C-alpha cells in the first residue's frame, strides 16, 4: 500500500504556519475604524446641539433627555439581537453598508426635523441602523486577523468610540457657530445651525457606505482553520429572531409556543402598559415611557423565548442572580456615565456660560482621553484582582460606582471652568474603569457557547438601564426643580446632574450581593446548565 501521508504528517515536520493578517486586513480595519468614528459622531452630536434644539423646537430638558437617550437606545437594543444574528448568517459587508446608509440617512433627516415627533423618528432610525455596526465589524475582524492579533485589532477598532464621541462635540460646535454667523436669520430652506450640523455629518456617511460596500467578504471561520458557509436561509432565521423581540411579531412568536405562553405575554404587555400610563400621568412625558415600555416588553418576550428553546442558557443568564446583579449594577454606572456625557456640554454652556467652541473642544478631548485611559487601566487592575479572588473584578465595578461621586459633586457645584473640566475628566475616567470588569464577569458566568447571548443580555442592561434613563433622568429632574423666568420654564441642570449620585446606593447594594454570589455561581456553571436541560 502506498504511503500517502503529506510531509507535514511526518514526525518532526514543521507545524502548519498560523495565518497572518495581510495588508488588506489592515486596510479593512482602517475602514471599520472610520465607520465606528462616524457611528459615534452621529450618535453623540445631539449633545452639543441640545441647547439650540431645545430653544428652536420649544422642548423641555426632559424632552431632550428622551431624544438623547431612549429614542435611540430602545431601538438600538431591540434590533441589536436580530441584526447581530443576521451578521452571523449573511454577508456582513452588505449588512454593514445597508446599516450605514440607514443611520446616515436618518442623521441627515434629523437636520430636516421641524418638531419633536420628526426628530424622534429620525433618532429611532439612527438606532436601528447603528445596531448593525459592531456585530458586523467584530465578525469581520475575527475573520481578517488571527487569534494572536485579534485583541489588538479589536482595541484599535474600539478606539473609534472615544474618537467619535469626542470629535462630535467639536464638529457640532464648529458647524453651528459658522452657519449661524453666515446665516443669522436662517440659511437655504430656512435651515438653522443645528440642522446644518446634522446634515453635515449625515451626508458623508452615504458616501462612506459605498466605500464599505467595496470591501471583500472574507471566508467565515477560515482564519481559525474552520471555514463555514453562511446560512442557506438567513432571512428566515432573521424573521424568527424578529418574532422573539420586536413587537407585535412577539405575539406571533408567543402563540407558536402555545396559548399559555400567549396569555403570559399579553399579561405582561398589559402590566407594562399600565405602568407606562401611570408614569406618563406623573411626568407628562409620553414618548419616554412609551419607548421604555416597548423596550422592556421586548426583553421579556426574548427571555421567554430563550427559556423555551434554550433552558440552560436562560438558567445561566436570567436565572442567575449574580449575572443579573452584575449587569444591573454596571447598568447604573452606565446610567450616570451617559447622563454626564449628554448633559455636560449643555450644562457648561447654560450654567457656567462657557463658549460653545471652547467647551466642545475641551470636553471632547476630555471624554476621549478619560474613556480610553479608564477602560484600559481598569481592565488591567480588574484582571489582577480576579487572579487573587474569583469575585475580584466586582471590586473594580464598585470603584466605578463610588469613585466618581466626589468629582461629580465638586465639578457640578463649582463656578470655576477649569475645575469643572478637571472634575469631569476624573468622573469619566473612574466610571469607564468598570466596563471591562463588568463585561468579563458576565462572560465568566456562562458556558462558552452562551457568550454571544450573554453579551447581548449585558448590553441590553447597559442600554435599556443606562442610556434609556441617564439623559432622561437628568432632564426630568431639571424640569421638576426648575423655575419660571419671564413666564417660561427654566430647568435646573445642576440639580438634575447631581441627582445621578442618588443611584449609587442601589448600585452598591446590587454589586455587594454579586460579590458574594459570583464565586459559587461560577463554580456551578456546568451543573446548573445540565440540570436545566439541553437547548431545544
Give an overview of the whole structure.
This protein has 536 residues and is mainly α. Helices cover 77% and strands 1% of the residues. The protein has 24 helices and 2 strands. It has helices spanning 23-44, 46-57, 61-68, 70-89, 92-110, 116-130, 133-144, 147-182, 193-213, 234-245, 249-256, 259-283, 286-309, 311-317, 321-350, 356-388, 392-402, 405-411, 417-432, 435-444, 451-481, 493-498, 504-523, 525-532; strands at 483-485, 488-490. A two-stranded antiparallel sheet has the order 1-2. The two termini are 47 Å apart.
Low-confidence stretches: 1-15
Name the strands of the widest sheet in spatial order: 1-2
Give me the count of strands.
Answer: 2
User: What is the quaternary state of this protein?
Assistant: single chain
Largest sheet: 2 strands, antiparallel
Number of helices: 24
Summarize, please:
With 536 residues, the chain is mainly alpha-helical. The protein has 24 helices and two strands. It is globular, with a radius of gyration of 24 Å.
